[in-house]
Amino acid sequence: MRKAVQTEKKRFLDDPANVTRIWRGFVIACVAVAALDILGLLGFIWHRHVNLFIEGLPGFYPLWGFLGISMLIIVAKKLRTLVMRPEDYYDDE
Amino acid sequence: MTSSLPPFVIFLVAGLLAVVVRGRLRSALLLATPVVSALTLIDLQPGTTVEVGIMGLELTLMRVDELSLLFGYLFHLAAFIGILYSLHVKDTLQQSTSVLYAGSAVGAAFAGDLITFFLFWELLAITSVFLIWASRTPSAIRAGIRYLVLQVGSGVTLLAGIIFYAHGTGGIAFNEIGLDAPGGLLIFLGLGLKCGFPLLHMWLTDAYPEATPTGSVFLCMFTTKVAVMALARGFPGAEPLIYIGAAMTFFPIFFAVIENDLRRVLAFSMINQLGFMVCGIGIGTALALNGAVSHAFNDVLFKGLLFMAVGAVITMTGRSKASDLGGLYKTMPITATLCIIGAATISAIPLFAGFVSKSMVMQAALNEGHPVIWLFLLFASVGVLEHAGIKIPFFAFFAHDSGLRPGEPPTNMLLAMGISAVLCIAIGTWPATLYSLLPYDASYEPYDMTHVIVQLQLLMFGGLAVFWMMRTGRYPTEERAINLEFDWFYRRLLPSWIRAGGSALAPIRAGYARMVHARGEDLLNFLTRHHGNTGTLARTWPTGSMALWVAILLALFVVAYYV
Questions:
Q1: What is the pTM of this model?
Q2: Cβ of A84 and B485 within 8 Å?
Q3: For residue B508, is it within any domain?
Q4: Are B453 and A33 inside 8 Å of each other by CB?
Q5: What whole-number distance in Å separates Cα of residue B166 and Cα of residue B174?
Q6: What are the start-end ranges of the E strands in B64-207?
Q7: Are residues B229 and B249 in the same domain?
Q8: Which positions of chain B have pLDDT values less than 70?
Q9: Nearest C-alpha of chain B: how many angstroms from A44?
Q10: Quick one: residue B136, left, alpha or beta (phi over 0 = left, psi -120 to 50 = alpha)?
């Protein structure tokens, strides 16, 4: 299974510069998708229909997604201090 | 009524036959089972029943309606995918029990009365535990025992509820039960355990990661989906389910973020997805119930696909921990692609199956005036993206290079994953076929401009947060560690209480022992005094003294005689 890694050809993703390029492209795509809210607000191209007031606020979904995940990860890291144990914790059963 | 053969019979016969046949014949038999059985489903019309009388009970072995048909199709499809995926495994124990397990699920889906349902409910537990034990490691054996105890506990609770219900209502037909019915709460809890209700869910995250790589694929497809179907049948619109479901979507995602074992991440993710279904059943409108059962249908495909992808990684590398994996895309590109399709589907990206089913539950929550629940579900939806959508494929196939260079898994595994992946995209892109199978009467159109755009915004910014945290070092590192979960209460706390109870009682025990000992010693001393080495009754006497005594006695006798 383990082979000498050094003889392999270099992959696209092995170059950090390429990863950074993908990352930048993704950020631009995110900004573009968020910008659709402005078009929706103007009723241009698409017309937004909403069930709740806050749902209709521009930027609600992007913010909920970004802050939701950030909160999730921060809380989960705190949770580790409470519940993390060595792998052999239950070995004496 | 008709002479139809209940479809579970074919599975049970094949499962038993699999023990005696070998090699290619067994493979052919197993693969043919769901196909042949599915052919018998084609002619089935809603309203068909098969009844038998046993011991004075009129049992409805098969009752066909739209709900049972949907789950019937689903379990046949799942059985076929699972059997194909595990075709390379040469282990009689697993091959036989996995088909029996699938058959139990089919039987439960068509069960028309509560007694029949209970029998299949128990059979699910008994057949599935072998898929855990088949790992044949000490930890799997122990996890299997814990799993079996809780599963059978669920069955006992269900049976108790059924007895109250039958006694109170005079009927055993499996229709809407409701929480207020006699025994309703017990039935509810019995079903809830196998559905992964919070604090009753520990068996799932404990045992599924211990199963064999192919076994966990079967496990993720049947037990919990039978429970969802049963809740949809027995407790539609039961309000507590809304809150139970929301809690189920919420708490596992925090554990999933920090979990190192990828199969355990999927187990947490499974509770999260079940939460959406349970919530939908609780809302109870036609749209919500359709959402719940169609999400159960899709979950079998996408969660199965993710378990299959991780199972393929375990089969090829022997590892399942995020900290030990990474960089596998270089030599397992097909598996990586299929895994990403599963991840995209569970994340509910438009054009993938998760999008067209989960959104029904979300929409129903809004329609019925549960905005806070809706916000919870929306948060949980982004959470899914983090742990199942990104974490699973990223840490297995990308992340840091582990140096492992395994090849692609056997063809049958790739084919099984391929079928699931194609269905994930097909259902997501053309949802009309799935919608036409749904049992409740509600129309829903997932592809509307607003819905697609806001979903993309939600998910892309969720992804943005994850990758931003990874790039800036804020993301929690993969630790070679375990995280305590609620099973700690019975694996550590309870045993320690029992031990502590033992030591608290120790002085009393010691006192009692002292008393018994002292009494015994008194008795012993008494015996020693009289019968011991120096005791009066144990002294040795010279033979002469005996003769003297005999002479004295004789003399006394003679004197007495003459007097």
A1: 0.89
A2: no
A3: no
A4: yes
A5: 11
A6: none
A7: no
A8: 1-3, 536-542, 562-563
A9: 12
A10: left
